[in-house]
Design goal:
The protein has ten helices and twelve strands. The protein is of the alpha/beta class. The chain folds into three domains: about 200 residues, Vaccinia Virus protein VP39 (Rossmann fold); about 30 residues, no CATH class; about 35 residues, no CATH class. The strands form three sheets. Strands 1-10-9-2-3-7-6-8 form an eight-stranded mixed sheet, with helices on both faces. A two-stranded antiparallel ribbon has the order 4-5. Helix 2 links the parallel strand 2 and strand 3. The longest helix is centred in the C-terminal third of the chain and has 23 residues. The protein starts with 7 loop residues before the first strand and ends with a helix. Bound molecules: S-adenosylmethionine (SAM). The site of S-adenosylmethionine has 17 residues, from strand 10.
Length: about 350
Amino acid sequence: MPSLPLDTIYHGDCRELLSSLPDASVDLVVSSPPYNLGKEYESKVALQHYVDEQAGVLRECARVLKRTGSIFWQVGAFADAGMLVPLDIRFFPILESLGLIPRNRIVWARQHGLHASKKFSCRHETILWFTRSDDYTFNLDAIRVPQKYQNKKHYRGDKKGELSCNPDGKNPGDIWLFRNVKHNHEEQTIHPCQFPEDLIARIVLSATKPGDVILDPFMGVGTVAVVARDHGRHFLGAELDPGYHKVAMQRLSGEPDENRVFPNLKTLRDYVERTGEPIGRYRFAVQVGERATERSKAKVYPEEHHLAEMEERLAYEEEAFAADLRGHERPVDRKLNGVGPKPQPSPEEKLFA
Ligand SMILES: C[S@@+](CC[C@H](N)C(=O)[O-])C[C@H]1O[C@@H](n2cnc3c(N)ncnc32)[C@H](O)[C@@H]1O
């Protein structure tokens, strides 16, 4: 039986790598496939051609998956001349037809993006989670997030006075808001659509155990490999593009190149923290400013912060819309839009002022 090329990224077509892997050898497949479909066909034909090709990759992924394994497949939408096809709609039946069992359709929401003028602006992508059987790993305790009302207690019955929610935190749910890896993100490399490491960490920690094997057939700049390694899991995968493959290898090595350049700010900061070298000696590939900044000076907001901000913003926008519909004055939220009159005290506040 062929052995697994553990902790390596094959430089080449993932179909070559997949065909060399034994059946039932991988615990988790997590990936985002390419979907820049090229223009060599009329767009609908191109889409069908692409889906058929991807179906071949997924068939191989299902073959190499262990009985207890999972596939997480992250996709956005195919857009062409105003037409929009959410790709998960095409992938869902393919995954089902391979005998896999759907567990979640995770919405990865975005606060920002292009503003459309002829349709609603797109603000989410999706992650489909399928398992091979009912006997699968889901470590909820490893990925709990703070409760909304941490100290909420039962107010009647046998449990009166006891905490009514798990003090260790709650299930994060299926709407995720990890910030996109764009400008100012410390993980940003030259790749236009890399995964945020924290998003992959949530998947890795929930769906695998230490020592498990994780496959990403479309490694890009190696985010899945970096996260797997950092959490004591094995990885393997493929990347076709030599530039992205090189960046992935540099991220994994954690060392600068011969010109003292790192693939991203995160690898640079990790290096200077580990070695004690002065940060000013190094640069990173997508650096804009004169000098890289220390991590201690960076503002880091957890996912919960962005989620709360988005909830607040959407609630405000819907209240403003409701006011418009009813001919009322729009509510003003100084924190959200920074303008408008000072909020007036409520009658109760006036009474106790
Ligand atoms: C959406 S990107 C994945 C980015 C990745 N998640 C990351 O965090 O860097 C898809 C990648 O698949 C690569 N690719 C496209 N076709 C491929 C193939 N047949 N085999 C291997 N890699 C391929 C592309 O070069 C691209 O980097």
